[in-house]
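User: Quick sanity check before I run a bigger batch. Here is a single chain. Can you write out its predicted 3D structure?
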Amino acid sequence: PGGPALGGAGREFEPGRRLQGSVGPARARGAGLMLARAAADFYWMGRYVERAEQTARLLDYQLARLVDTPAEELARGWSILYDIFGLAPPGLASDADEAETFLIADAYTLAGAVVEDETRPASLLSCWGQARDNATQLRPWLPVQVWTTLNRGFLWLRDTEFAAAWAVGPATLVREARDRLRLFGGVVDATMSRDDAWRFMQLGCFVERLQQQAVLLGTWDRSGHVSGGSPSAWWAELLRICDAYDFYCRSRSMVVRRDSALMFLVRNPELPRSLRFAVHQIGELLAGIDPQGARYPLAPPHRMALHLAASVEMSPRGGEGRGDDIGNTFNTLLADSLSLHELAMAAYVDYPVEEGLPA
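Assistant: Done. Predicted structure follows.
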């Protein structure tokens, strides 16, 4: 479903593989891997919360445009969002034209599928529920305020009638969901000690953010080549989605250009949703989790984090080389971030019992 999947390093990534989900090999091994099991739950809780927040922000962007945006442009926006989520539109027949499906389907149906359909891995309710399931396993390690905030948010979303919320305003529900998720992040920052539990949760958050941002930037760049509107407005919308527009205008220019906007979202070290910021945080968190692995010879997760940092720094600047170079960079970063996840799981969750965790 959707447009061509992002890939890299000679590998193809189907849309369904973009959204990695928690698996249970460590849980099946019993009490001998209690620490690894807890680490995995913290890691996946961070990933699912970050995924839910990304879904809410993208939906907020699309629903805010319903009033005064032409139908063809709205349909293209829905197509881009579903492509980013790696989802097929609801009711898509095997022989149907996808572009026509988005043009015919109403916004209520398209939004509802991404909000309350628990069978879709990127839906708000699914992500929140998965994060809550992980948190349930961690009650002895979690501050009461963290559990309470996450649980109340899930129960609020589960019990909210989507139709009633839509009648109040199409974007009302997703904006409150976004605010509740950000409140959860604030409670985590204010109440959790900076131990390995916090580090694994934050590692999951930033691995997810790196993957999601690589998909978002790559998809947006591909779609921008066929955009019929103002190029400046197109890239300004991307900055707004990433909560970066005001910062960009203060530090760069009021006129937004493709190369400048993409480099801002790739390399700016102060922007929370830049790729460089995420990669730096991943490196710092891995060093805290496994200090020995950060020394020569580097452990595989640390080596991949260093490789990612170099890839971000060496990504082509605006005006350098061919216009599609930066698009290829997003493909490679996505592939490498997926590999980083696998390496981290192998090192800290699925390790052989006789070896134990790194000292």
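The longest helix spans residues 34-63.

User: Great, the batch can go ahead then.
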